[in-house]
Amino acid sequence: MKGKYKLQMLVVALIVLSIANVLWGSLDIPVKDVWQILCGGEVEGHPAWSFIVLQGRVPQMLTALLTGTALGTCGLLLQTAFRNPLAGPSILGIDSGANLGVAIVLLLLGGTASIGNLTLGGHLLVVVAAMAGALAIMALLMILSRVLRSQVMLLITGVIISYVTGSVIQLLNYSATEQGVFSFVIWGMGNFASVGIERLPVFCTLSCFGLLLALLLIKPLDALLLGNRYAENLGIKIGQVRQMLLLVTGLLTATTTAFCGPISFIGLAVPHLARLTLGTAWHRTLMPATMLIGANLALACNLLSTLPRDGSIIPISVITPLIGAPVILHVILKQKN
Amino acid sequence: MIELQHLTVGYGEKAVLSDINQSLNAGQMVCLLGANGVGKSTILRTLAGFLAPLSGKVLIEGRDLPSLSLSERSQAVSVVLTERVEVPYMKVIDLVGMGRSPYTGFFGKLSKEDNAIVDEAIEMVGIANLAQRTIDTLSDGERQKALLAKALAQQTPIILLDEPTAFLDFHAKVSTLRLMLRLAHETGKTIFLSTHDVEMAIQLSDALWIVQEGKIQAGTTASLTESGTLQRFLHAEGITYDTKEHTLKIT
Fold first, then answer.
1. What ranges do the domains of chain B cover?
2. What topology is assigned to B2-76+157-250 in CATH?
3. Global pTM value
4. Which H or E element spans position B191?
5. Do the Cβ atoms of A226 and B98 come within 8 Å?
6. A113, part of any domain
7. CA A58: distance to chain centroid?
8. Is residue A270 part of a domain?
9. Which residue from A86, B2, B226, B241 has the least number of CB within 10 angstroms?
10. Rounded distance, CA B105 to CA B87, Å?
């Protein structure tokens, strides 16, 4: 019952933060005018405000909400699958795989590629490339995790993967056009505004599909907490579950990375905040809590990013480590005890 | 009851133990003894269904193990493994509740009936006072009892345990073994475990399986003493086996 109450509080926080994200932005628009625009009206003398609120803030709020949810869920799946409290999409190098995919598209191919008669352009190509990169790294990690028994070794492998992909990206940067490098750097700063109203449906569909699949894994994840053998003995089809995990984490990491750029630490920190808040190991409460906290945290980060209030924004990738790092330190110190 | 017919166990092509013909009876605690590396874990893994038999049959209640579905298997055999179970925020009652997984629905939520079975299992191993504690705060002995309760909650006719007494202090070893013996007798389950605590196994268990020189000899302590099997197994410098009292003297 207590857990239910806490989940309800998180929902309330989510509603408040979502509204706040629409009301406040890098440009000052009076609250009553925002309300008027949301109700379908226009503010006299400020035709641009409608555009800012409806085409800017609302999609940005939804993007932040879904990205936070997706990254938190991803972190939870990885931490349980690898039985490693420090696992997360960025530390294990999964998002660096997605980065590499994006880099190849933006830097090497200049944004388009054709396979036979089929031409993939723009964002769809970026998503497909990010997905391929993320899935490749995830598959590699799954294979290695059977050999590497130690938790630390797996993390080190993730760090090495990040280095290798990093150096390949550097190399691509070196030979790319100025425009390519510029768009890659901007993408790399992380930005919830980059989805926009026209790409929002694709982004929503992909992330909601991934999140729905994650919910299907709740029971197997509980059993996996005890380890593969115990889980198998409890009737869980380990092979099938691992494939699903591969697909879901790959899809969620790739979608968020491709659309919003690499956003570190949320995936790693949010599941711990959920455990701390609810004090439970069961995924049927932990997963909704992780989703809600992830969404809240991303919305809070998005609000913080508009703090300069002069029309400019702080990149998201500057803010998330400041929130994530203390959580990680807490986990490490607690482990030591 | 489990029957092994011409069973060969091993990994890949390599047979570790061949042509095993033995059976395990219901309501008994049977200890598997043998030096490291003789294949104790291989037998247990095969009986648990983690490893496929290289040849021969494992019949559980008359049904061949490899032909059972994963779900049927999870309701036939439960295990307690050597790997350490460390899960942050998991309470004893949650761990024992995991044993209900084969019976719960899509999200694994426990029903009233499941909760009653969990409470009963916790009661049976005598750790009701620890039910709300998180497992990372338990001693090794308490954790082993919690895992045993998980196996009981799984309601399988057979419980397999791989060296359940390995990391325990002396008193915990004795209490865990006595607990398993009592449970086997009270519940009618087959409890089959590997152990290096030879003297306790000799004195407490209903039957012994001794693995040596690639063969398995099974029987009660008395019958294995009579046939001289135990003496051969225990034979080493500094160990004297009292064949009447079934005790060991170390000199």
1. 2-76+157-250, 84-155
2. Rossmann fold (3.40.50)
3. 0.89
4. strand B190-194
5. yes
6. yes
7. 18
8. yes
9. B226
10. 23
